[in-house]
Design goal:
By secondary structure, the protein is an all-alpha fold. 72% of the residues lie in helices and 0% in strands. The mean pLDDT is 81.
Length: 191
């Protein structure tokens, strides 16, 4: 944000480079969820001439950060409830999450993981692997929760961009691309 005051052209170029570097598609050309969410957050700040309203972005930054924080906090809280209540069947016997947690800690204690971030990341990767393999019901519940959360966030962000838009979840990603391409197309015609 500081760059925009001294060198607005560099700030604009940096914005578009960041956006382009984070624009991902699947092999079939459909944009990823990450790209769609990023697009929905950025679009209100992209002017018709493709300049960026950095002042408005700076004003909205705390609101956006709080929105993301609340959504992630709610998601993580719900994920913990699912994981803690899951039953696991690694062999013939049903186990609870505490058993899985102890096993993962045991596995990781044999590795040299001194960095807490790396340890926590490895811990949850292993836990989710065990959930996928030994608690298929909880795994499906988690996938459904993530999909529902993604849809809700996309719908809420879409309503801010185009309040009257038909928000059929099946077409939300197409609408995001349509809005973005339309904005870029009209901006390029002004150049």
């Amino acid at each position: 944000m500081a760059c925009k005051d001294n060198k607005p052209d560099i700030a604009k170029r940096m914005f578009w480079m960041f956006y382009a570097d984070n624009y991902y598609t699947y092999p079939n050309g459909v944009v990823t969820s990450y790209t769609n969410l990023l697009s929905l957050i950025f679009m209100p700040f992209i002017n018709d001439d493709l300049s960026i309203d950095f002042d408005e972005m700076a004003k909205q930054q705390p609101v956006i950060a709080e929105y993301i924080f609340v959504k992630l906090t709610n998601l993580v809280t719900t994920l913990f409830i699912i994981v803690r209540n899951a039953s696991f069947k690694p062999y013939k016997y049903e186990r609870d999450f505490e058993f899985i947690e102890e096993r993962v800690h045991s596995i990781l204690s044999r590795e040299n993981t001194n960095d807490i971030l790396n340890y926590d990341t490895a811990f949850w990767i292993n836990c989710f692997s065990m959930i996928k393999n030994f608690s298929p019901q909880a795994y499906q519940e988690i996938l459904s929760l993530l999909e529902a959360c993604e849809t809700i966030i996309k719908e809420e962000l879409h309503k801010k961009i185009e309040p009257g838009l038909d928000l059929n979840p099946e077409y939300i990603d197409i609408n995001t691309a349509r809005i973005l391409v339309g904005k870029i197309d009209s901006g390029l015609s002004l150049l």
